[in-house]
Design brief:
The structure is a single chain. The chain is about 50% helix and about 20% strand. By secondary structure, the chain is of the alpha/beta class. The protein has a 5-stranded mixed beta sheet with strand order 3-2-1-4-5. It starts with a strand and ends with a helix. The C terminus is likely disordered.
């Protein structure tokens, strides 16, 4: 069985986390992780373009086979939800436009897959990502969340494909 390279994306307009892993059977291997931070003083079109360009560059550089994006849950306000939805649209569209299959996962499923509880906090997620990927290096919760999304996809991608085919 060949290793499958997965990019996980934690969408955000201020900080968009990304993490890349390889999955081979039950084994996971850390490849890279980081955060895209569009300039906050730029207008919305420029910030979305920065996300697109950043994700496109990462995908071309690391050549993942599949992508996984977190479904966002926002209860802050309509404006924040709309802006986050636009960033999420770029996070979904960019890998799809570059030919990658894209899986979407609810935040609670990601947390349950990584920590075992659907309401885990950021520290628990970071700790478990380090346990599951001992070689992982990342700065901040956004990159750790993106790695968690990629791990979730590695665990659930077969079930997603079966549902899509059925």
């Amino acid at each position: 069985m060949a290793a499958l390279r997965i990019i996980g994306i934690d969408p955000g307009l201020r900080r968009c986390g990304w993490g890349i892993i390889e999955s081979e059977g039950n084994r996971l291997r850390f490849v890279a992780a980081g955060t895209i931070t569009p300039p906050v003083d730029d207008g919305m079109p420029e910030r979305l373009r920065a996300l697109f360009e950043g994700l496109s560059t990462l995908i071309r550089q690391h050549m993942p086979d599949e992508a996984a994006v977190e479904e966002t849950f926002v209860s802050v306000g309509a404006r924040s939800a709309l802006q986050l939805g636009q960033a999420r649209g770029v996070a979904l569209m960019t890998p799809a436009a570059l030919g990658l299959p894209v899986g979407e996962y609810a935040a609670n499923l990601v947390k349950k897959s990584i920590v075992g509880a659907g309401h885990a906090d950021k520290n628990q997620i970071q700790m478990m990502v380090k346990i599951l990927l001992p070689a992982a290096t990342f700065k901040g919760a956004d990159a750790a969340d993106a790695l968690a999304i990629a791990i979730c996809h590695a665990h659930h991608r077969g079930a997603v494909a079966l549902r899509a085919a059925g």
